[in-house]
Amino acid sequence: MRTAFAEQFDVPPGYLNTASIGVPPARVADAVEAAVRRWRTAADNPPDFDAGVDTARAAFAALVGVDAAAVSVGASVSQLAGLVAASIPGGSRVLLARGEFTSLTFPFAAQRHRGLELTEVDLAKLPAEVAGHDLVAVSVVQSADGGMVDLDALREAAEAAGAWVLLDVSQAAGWLPLRLDWADWVVGVAYKWLLAPRGVAWLASRPEALDVVIPHAANWYAGEDRWGSSLYGLPLRLAGDARRLDLAPAWLPHVGAAAALPWLASLDLAEVRAHCAGLADALLDRLGLPPRGSAIVSLDLPDAGRRLAEAGVRASARAGRTRLSFHLYNTMADVEAAARALGR
Asked: Which of 11, 53, 193, 335 shows its CA 20 to 30 Å from the CA of 120?
Protein backbone atom coordinates (compact mmCIF):
# COMPACT_ATOMS: atom_id res chain seq x y z
CA MET A 1 0.00 0.00 0.00
CA ARG A 2 1.30 3.43 -0.95
CA THR A 3 0.16 6.84 0.25
CA ALA A 4 0.16 9.70 -2.25
CA PHE A 5 -1.53 13.09 -1.96
CA ALA A 6 -3.45 11.83 1.12
CA GLU A 7 -4.92 8.79 -0.66
CA GLN A 8 -4.08 5.09 -0.32
CA PHE A 9 -3.13 3.02 -3.37
CA ASP A 10 -2.67 -0.73 -3.80
CA VAL A 11 -0.38 -0.07 -6.76
CA PRO A 12 2.51 -2.57 -6.95
CA PRO A 13 6.15 -1.43 -7.07
CA GLY A 14 7.36 -0.68 -10.57
CA TYR A 15 3.94 0.11 -12.07
CA LEU A 16 4.78 2.63 -14.81
CA ASN A 17 1.84 2.06 -17.12
CA THR A 18 -0.74 4.75 -16.23
CA ALA A 19 -0.87 5.76 -19.90
CA SER A 20 -2.62 2.41 -20.44
CA ILE A 21 -4.58 1.99 -17.18
CA GLY A 22 -4.56 4.19 -14.09
CA VAL A 23 -4.67 2.53 -10.67
CA PRO A 24 -7.47 4.00 -8.53
CA PRO A 25 -7.19 5.11 -4.92
CA ALA A 26 -8.44 2.37 -2.62
CA ARG A 27 -11.41 4.58 -1.74
CA VAL A 28 -12.45 4.75 -5.40
CA ALA A 29 -12.18 0.99 -5.87
CA ASP A 30 -14.20 0.53 -2.67
CA ALA A 31 -16.95 2.77 -4.06
CA VAL A 32 -17.20 0.69 -7.23
CA GLU A 33 -17.13 -2.54 -5.22
CA ALA A 34 -19.96 -1.24 -3.02
CA ALA A 35 -21.96 -0.36 -6.14
CA VAL A 36 -21.52 -3.90 -7.44
CA ARG A 37 -22.81 -5.23 -4.12
CA ARG A 38 -25.86 -2.96 -4.39
CA TRP A 39 -26.42 -4.14 -7.96
CA ARG A 40 -26.38 -7.81 -6.97
CA THR A 41 -28.95 -7.15 -4.23
CA ALA A 42 -31.23 -4.91 -6.34
CA ALA A 43 -30.61 -2.01 -3.98
CA ASP A 44 -30.51 0.75 -6.62
CA ASN A 45 -32.97 2.38 -9.00
CA PRO A 46 -31.74 3.87 -12.30
CA PRO A 47 -32.14 7.53 -11.27
CA ASP A 48 -29.92 6.87 -8.24
CA PHE A 49 -26.88 7.08 -10.53
CA ASP A 50 -27.62 10.58 -11.86
CA ALA A 51 -25.91 12.39 -8.99
CA GLY A 52 -22.65 10.55 -9.68
CA VAL A 53 -22.87 11.29 -13.40
CA ASP A 54 -23.32 14.99 -12.69
CA THR A 55 -20.59 15.02 -10.03
CA ALA A 56 -18.06 13.53 -12.43
CA ARG A 57 -19.22 15.88 -15.21
CA ALA A 58 -18.61 18.92 -13.01
CA ALA A 59 -15.20 17.64 -11.89
CA PHE A 60 -14.08 17.02 -15.48
CA ALA A 61 -15.19 20.55 -16.30
CA ALA A 62 -13.05 21.88 -13.45
CA LEU A 63 -10.04 19.85 -14.60
CA VAL A 64 -10.12 21.31 -18.12
CA GLY A 65 -11.27 24.81 -17.14
CA VAL A 66 -14.81 24.98 -18.53
CA ASP A 67 -18.36 25.23 -17.18
CA ALA A 68 -20.16 22.01 -16.28
CA ALA A 69 -23.05 22.98 -18.57
CA ALA A 70 -20.62 22.73 -21.50
CA VAL A 71 -19.80 19.06 -20.86
CA SER A 72 -21.46 16.05 -22.50
CA VAL A 73 -21.15 12.47 -21.24
CA GLY A 74 -20.03 9.66 -23.52
CA ALA A 75 -18.23 6.34 -23.55
CA SER A 76 -14.99 6.85 -25.50
CA VAL A 77 -12.92 9.42 -27.37
CA SER A 78 -13.78 7.90 -30.74
CA GLN A 79 -17.52 8.02 -30.03
CA LEU A 80 -17.44 11.69 -29.04
CA ALA A 81 -14.88 12.78 -31.65
CA GLY A 82 -17.04 10.94 -34.15
CA LEU A 83 -19.95 13.26 -33.39
CA VAL A 84 -17.73 16.21 -34.31
CA ALA A 85 -16.32 14.52 -37.40
CA ALA A 86 -19.78 13.60 -38.68
CA SER A 87 -21.13 17.10 -38.06
CA ILE A 88 -18.59 19.46 -39.63
CA PRO A 89 -19.36 20.45 -43.23
CA GLY A 90 -18.42 18.15 -46.06
CA GLY A 91 -15.18 19.23 -47.70
CA SER A 92 -13.69 20.53 -44.45
CA ARG A 93 -9.89 20.58 -44.28
CA VAL A 94 -8.65 18.84 -41.12
CA LEU A 95 -5.14 19.15 -39.71
CA LEU A 96 -3.76 16.28 -37.61
CA ALA A 97 -0.50 15.42 -35.90
CA ARG A 98 1.48 12.68 -37.60
CA GLY A 99 1.38 9.50 -35.53
CA GLU A 100 -1.66 10.64 -33.54
CA PHE A 101 -3.67 8.03 -31.63
CA THR A 102 -6.29 6.67 -34.00
CA SER A 103 -9.29 7.16 -31.69
CA LEU A 104 -8.91 10.83 -32.62
CA THR A 105 -8.00 10.44 -36.30
CA PHE A 106 -10.08 7.49 -37.50
CA PRO A 107 -13.42 9.29 -36.92
CA PHE A 108 -12.31 11.95 -39.41
CA ALA A 109 -10.87 9.41 -41.85
CA ALA A 110 -14.23 7.63 -41.79
CA GLN A 111 -15.84 10.83 -43.11
CA ARG A 112 -13.71 11.09 -46.23
CA HIS A 113 -16.73 10.05 -48.29
CA ARG A 114 -18.11 13.53 -47.47
CA GLY A 115 -15.01 15.12 -48.92
CA LEU A 116 -13.06 15.75 -45.70
CA GLU A 117 -9.42 16.47 -46.53
CA LEU A 118 -6.93 15.23 -43.93
CA THR A 119 -3.39 16.52 -43.57
CA GLU A 120 -0.82 15.09 -41.14
CA VAL A 121 2.22 17.10 -40.01
CA ASP A 122 4.84 16.68 -37.31
CA LEU A 123 3.58 17.77 -33.90
CA ALA A 124 6.18 20.53 -33.51
CA LYS A 125 5.14 22.04 -36.85
CA LEU A 126 1.39 21.79 -36.29
CA PRO A 127 0.69 25.38 -35.10
CA ALA A 128 2.59 26.77 -38.08
CA GLU A 129 0.44 24.76 -40.50
CA VAL A 130 -3.01 25.77 -39.20
CA ALA A 131 -3.63 28.42 -41.86
CA GLY A 132 -5.67 26.99 -44.70
CA HIS A 133 -7.44 24.41 -42.52
CA ASP A 134 -10.94 24.43 -41.05
CA LEU A 135 -10.28 22.23 -38.01
CA VAL A 136 -7.29 21.04 -35.99
CA ALA A 137 -7.60 17.82 -33.97
CA VAL A 138 -4.69 16.97 -31.68
CA SER A 139 -3.89 15.37 -28.34
CA VAL A 140 -2.50 17.76 -25.75
CA VAL A 141 -0.05 14.98 -24.81
CA GLN A 142 0.74 12.33 -27.39
CA SER A 143 -0.02 8.73 -26.46
CA ALA A 144 2.95 7.19 -28.25
CA ASP A 145 5.80 9.26 -26.82
CA GLY A 146 4.48 11.96 -24.46
CA GLY A 147 5.14 14.81 -26.88
CA MET A 148 3.21 17.96 -25.94
CA VAL A 149 1.57 20.36 -28.36
CA ASP A 150 2.37 24.06 -27.95
CA LEU A 151 -1.09 25.15 -26.78
CA ASP A 152 -0.34 28.88 -26.78
CA ALA A 153 0.96 28.77 -30.34
CA LEU A 154 -1.97 26.61 -31.46
CA ARG A 155 -4.51 28.96 -29.91
CA GLU A 156 -2.94 32.00 -31.57
CA ALA A 157 -2.74 30.27 -34.95
CA ALA A 158 -6.31 28.95 -34.79
CA GLU A 159 -7.71 32.35 -33.85
CA ALA A 160 -5.82 33.98 -36.72
CA ALA A 161 -7.03 31.35 -39.21
CA GLY A 162 -10.59 31.08 -37.87
CA ALA A 163 -10.11 27.32 -37.46
CA TRP A 164 -11.94 25.06 -35.04
CA VAL A 165 -9.83 23.20 -32.47
CA LEU A 166 -10.56 19.76 -30.99
CA LEU A 167 -8.22 18.76 -28.15
CA ASP A 168 -7.87 15.28 -26.66
CA VAL A 169 -6.77 15.42 -23.01
CA SER A 170 -6.79 11.66 -22.37
CA GLN A 171 -3.05 11.60 -21.62
CA ALA A 172 -2.99 15.02 -19.92
CA ALA A 173 -5.98 15.57 -17.64
CA GLY A 174 -5.16 14.54 -14.10
CA TRP A 175 -1.48 15.48 -14.09
CA LEU A 176 -1.25 18.59 -16.27
CA PRO A 177 -2.91 21.89 -15.25
CA LEU A 178 -5.33 22.82 -18.04
CA ARG A 179 -7.40 25.87 -18.95
CA LEU A 180 -8.98 25.02 -22.28
CA ASP A 181 -12.13 27.13 -22.44
CA TRP A 182 -10.73 28.67 -25.64
CA ALA A 183 -10.84 25.35 -27.55
CA ASP A 184 -14.00 24.55 -29.49
CA TRP A 185 -14.10 20.95 -28.23
CA VAL A 186 -12.18 19.10 -25.52
CA VAL A 187 -12.51 15.32 -25.24
CA GLY A 188 -11.06 12.93 -22.68
CA VAL A 189 -11.42 9.52 -21.06
CA ALA A 190 -11.51 8.51 -17.40
CA TYR A 191 -9.36 5.40 -17.12
CA LYS A 192 -5.83 6.78 -17.36
CA TRP A 193 -4.60 9.68 -15.20
CA LEU A 194 -8.18 10.33 -14.03
CA LEU A 195 -8.06 6.98 -12.17
CA ALA A 196 -11.61 5.87 -12.92
CA PRO A 197 -12.91 2.72 -14.68
CA ARG A 198 -12.97 2.45 -18.44
CA GLY A 199 -16.31 3.29 -20.03
CA VAL A 200 -16.59 7.02 -19.30
CA ALA A 201 -15.59 9.92 -21.52
CA TRP A 202 -16.54 13.58 -21.76
CA LEU A 203 -16.80 16.23 -24.47
CA ALA A 204 -16.66 19.92 -23.57
CA SER A 205 -18.00 22.28 -26.23
CA ARG A 206 -17.97 26.04 -26.60
CA PRO A 207 -21.55 27.30 -27.19
CA GLU A 208 -20.94 28.06 -30.87
CA ALA A 209 -19.26 24.69 -31.37
CA LEU A 210 -22.03 22.83 -29.57
CA ASP A 211 -24.51 24.20 -32.09
CA VAL A 212 -22.42 22.66 -34.90
CA VAL A 213 -22.66 19.11 -33.54
CA ILE A 214 -25.57 16.95 -34.68
CA PRO A 215 -26.74 14.59 -31.90
CA HIS A 216 -26.34 11.47 -34.03
CA ALA A 217 -26.71 9.28 -30.94
CA ALA A 218 -29.76 11.17 -29.61
CA ASN A 219 -31.37 9.17 -26.83
CA TRP A 220 -33.67 9.47 -23.83
CA TYR A 221 -30.86 10.36 -21.42
CA ALA A 222 -30.08 13.45 -23.50
CA GLY A 223 -33.68 14.58 -23.19
CA GLU A 224 -34.71 17.68 -21.32
CA ASP A 225 -36.80 15.55 -18.92
CA ARG A 226 -34.85 12.30 -19.00
CA TRP A 227 -36.98 10.39 -16.47
CA GLY A 228 -40.29 11.85 -17.58
CA SER A 229 -41.60 13.19 -20.86
CA SER A 230 -38.41 12.37 -22.81
CA LEU A 231 -38.86 8.62 -22.43
CA TYR A 232 -41.44 7.87 -25.12
CA GLY A 233 -42.66 9.17 -28.43
CA LEU A 234 -41.89 12.08 -30.72
CA PRO A 235 -41.11 14.91 -31.27
CA LEU A 236 -37.38 15.19 -30.50
CA ARG A 237 -36.92 17.14 -27.27
CA LEU A 238 -33.32 17.30 -26.14
CA ALA A 239 -31.70 19.29 -23.33
CA GLY A 240 -30.82 22.89 -24.06
CA ASP A 241 -27.20 22.66 -22.93
CA ALA A 242 -24.43 20.14 -23.66
CA ARG A 243 -26.53 17.36 -22.12
CA ARG A 244 -28.20 17.12 -25.52
CA LEU A 245 -25.17 15.06 -26.64
CA ASP A 246 -25.16 12.75 -23.60
CA LEU A 247 -24.97 9.03 -24.15
CA ALA A 248 -26.92 6.99 -21.60
CA PRO A 249 -24.18 6.28 -19.05
CA ALA A 250 -22.55 3.03 -18.04
CA TRP A 251 -23.50 3.29 -14.38
CA LEU A 252 -20.69 1.50 -12.54
CA PRO A 253 -17.81 3.35 -14.26
CA HIS A 254 -19.50 6.63 -13.39
CA VAL A 255 -19.56 5.60 -9.73
CA GLY A 256 -15.76 5.38 -9.88
CA ALA A 257 -15.44 8.62 -11.81
CA ALA A 258 -17.62 10.45 -9.26
CA ALA A 259 -15.28 9.26 -6.50
CA ALA A 260 -11.98 9.95 -8.29
CA LEU A 261 -12.38 13.17 -10.28
CA PRO A 262 -13.48 15.61 -7.54
CA TRP A 263 -10.42 14.61 -5.51
CA LEU A 264 -8.11 15.13 -8.48
CA ALA A 265 -9.76 18.49 -9.23
CA SER A 266 -9.10 19.56 -5.64
CA LEU A 267 -5.34 19.02 -5.90
CA ASP A 268 -2.68 21.57 -6.78
CA LEU A 269 -2.09 20.27 -10.30
CA ALA A 270 1.10 22.29 -10.63
CA GLU A 271 2.41 20.17 -7.75
CA VAL A 272 1.11 16.99 -9.39
CA ARG A 273 2.80 17.96 -12.65
CA ALA A 274 6.08 18.66 -10.89
CA HIS A 275 5.89 15.24 -9.24
CA CYS A 276 4.99 13.24 -12.37
CA ALA A 277 7.19 15.02 -14.88
CA GLY A 278 9.96 15.24 -12.30
CA LEU A 279 10.07 11.48 -11.95
CA ALA A 280 9.98 10.99 -15.72
CA ASP A 281 12.83 13.46 -16.19
CA ALA A 282 14.78 11.78 -13.39
CA LEU A 283 14.64 8.53 -15.34
CA LEU A 284 15.76 10.29 -18.51
CA ASP A 285 18.64 11.82 -16.60
CA ARG A 286 19.79 8.39 -15.42
CA LEU A 287 19.67 7.21 -19.00
CA GLY A 288 21.75 10.16 -20.19
CA LEU A 289 18.83 11.72 -22.06
CA PRO A 290 17.54 15.32 -21.93
CA PRO A 291 14.44 16.21 -19.86
CA ARG A 292 11.10 16.63 -21.63
CA GLY A 293 8.73 17.86 -18.94
CA SER A 294 6.17 15.16 -19.74
CA ALA A 295 4.78 12.35 -17.59
CA ILE A 296 5.39 9.91 -20.46
CA VAL A 297 8.82 8.58 -21.43
CA SER A 298 9.40 6.78 -24.74
CA LEU A 299 12.61 4.78 -25.12
CA ASP A 300 14.31 3.25 -28.13
CA LEU A 301 16.67 0.91 -26.28
CA PRO A 302 17.49 -2.70 -27.21
CA ASP A 303 15.41 -5.24 -25.27
CA ALA A 304 14.05 -2.50 -22.99
CA GLY A 305 10.62 -4.05 -22.72
CA ARG A 306 11.93 -7.49 -21.88
CA ARG A 307 14.45 -6.18 -19.34
CA LEU A 308 11.86 -4.07 -17.60
CA ALA A 309 9.36 -6.93 -17.47
CA GLU A 310 11.96 -9.31 -16.01
CA ALA A 311 12.66 -6.71 -13.30
CA GLY A 312 8.97 -6.42 -12.46
CA VAL A 313 8.55 -2.97 -14.04
CA ARG A 314 5.27 -2.54 -15.93
CA ALA A 315 5.49 -0.58 -19.18
CA SER A 316 3.97 -0.73 -22.68
CA ALA A 317 5.19 -1.19 -26.23
CA ARG A 318 3.97 1.69 -28.40
CA ALA A 319 5.00 2.73 -31.92
CA GLY A 320 8.03 0.42 -31.86
CA ARG A 321 9.36 1.88 -28.61
CA THR A 322 9.00 1.23 -24.88
CA ARG A 323 6.65 3.61 -23.10
CA LEU A 324 6.77 4.32 -19.37
CA SER A 325 4.37 6.69 -17.64
CA PHE A 326 4.35 8.26 -14.19
CA HIS A 327 1.53 9.38 -11.92
CA LEU A 328 1.15 10.70 -8.39
CA TYR A 329 1.45 7.23 -6.83
CA ASN A 330 4.91 6.67 -8.32
CA THR A 331 8.13 7.33 -6.39
CA MET A 332 11.87 7.51 -6.93
CA ALA A 333 11.97 3.81 -6.09
CA ASP A 334 10.16 3.17 -9.40
CA VAL A 335 12.68 5.35 -11.21
CA GLU A 336 15.58 3.44 -9.70
CA ALA A 337 14.01 0.07 -10.50
CA ALA A 338 13.57 1.06 -14.15
CA ALA A 339 17.07 2.51 -14.37
CA ARG A 340 18.62 -0.65 -12.89
CA ALA A 341 16.67 -2.84 -15.30
CA LEU A 342 18.00 -0.79 -18.20
CA GLY A 343 21.59 -1.06 -16.93
CA ARG A 344 21.86 2.54 -15.75
From this structure: 193
Together in a domain, 56 and 15: no
Nearest to 233 by CA among 242, 225, 244: 225
Cα distance between residue 73 and residue 95, in whole Å: 25
> CA torsion 56→62→64→66, rounded to 10°?
110
Structural contact between residues 180 and 204, judged by C-beta atoms closer than 8 angstroms: yes
- Which CATH number characterizes residue 136's domain? 3.40.640.10
Amino acid of residue 206? R
Residue 31 lies in a domain: no
Distance CA 240, CA 168 (A): 24
Q: Which amino acid does the sequence have at 41? A: T
The neighbouring-strand residues paired with 96 are 120, 137
The pLDDT-based confidence of 343 (bands split at 50, 70, 90) is confident
pTM of the model: 0.96
Under 8 Å CB-to-CB from 326, ≥6 apart: which residues? Answer: 16, 18, 276, 277, 279, 280, 295, 296, 297, 334
Q: Tally Cβ neighbours within 10 Å of residue 233.
A: 7
Q: pLDDT per residue over 41-61, tens digit each?
A: 999 999 999 999 999 999 999
Q: Domain containing 283 — which CATH number?
A: 3.90.1150.10
Q: Over the stretch 207-236, which tens digit does the pLDDT of each residue have?
A: 999 999 999 999 999 999 999 999 999 999
Q: What distance in Å separates the CA atoms of residue 63 and residue 66, rounded to the nearest whole number?
A: 8
Please check whether residue 93 lies inside any domain of the structure. Answer: yes
